[in-house]
Amino acid sequence: MRGGVFVGGAVLMLAMAGGGFVRGTVARGENASPVLAQPAAAATSQAKTMEVKIDNFKFGPEALTVPVGTTVTWTNRDDIPHTVVSTEGVFKSKVLDTDEKFSFTFAKAGAYDYFCSIHPKMVGKVIVQ
Predict the structure, then answer these.
(1) Is residue 120 over pLDDT 60?
(2) Which label site among 10, 34, 75, 113 has the fewest CB atoms less than 10 Å from its CB?
């Protein structure tokens, strides 16, 4: 019985220390023994980020496909100001000077067309799946 208490105590100490493990049980009743399993992948997944560069009066890439939950960051690499404005009014940046950035997180699937309000011929699209 002492051996079982020692092993159980060691497992409990590991669980309390965090260790990034999930606790579970192999069987119920007298012969139940705690087990350690690898952390669940979903619990440790990280949000995705993508970048669009504004350069030479173009958005690059012009079309971008991303999963739901992705944050897209636009960076103005031109020497003149630009904006990033959704044609549907979903997002709108301030006027971005050289090296300034604008970010938006896409929470819903769909196609999001956008343009520069200063130079309307500059267009782009984010496709969220």
Answers:
(1) yes
(2) 10
Question: Peptide bond preceding 61: is omega within 30 degrees of 0, i.e. cis?
Answer: yes
Return the beta strands (E) in the chain as ranges. Answer: 22-25, 34-37, 49-55, 58-60, 63-66, 71-76, 85-86, 101-105, 110-115, 123-128
Q: Are residues 34 and 66 in the same domain?
A: no
Assigned token pair, 3: 């051996």
Looking at the fold, whether 11 and 68 belong to one and the same domain comes out as no
In this structure, the answer to whether residues 53 and 32 fall within a common structural domain is no
Higher-pLDDT residue of 29, 94: 94
- In this structure, of 1-5, 8-12, 62-66, the range with the lowest mean pLDDT score is 8-12
Range of the domain at 26: 2-43
Which residue has tokens 């404005």? 85
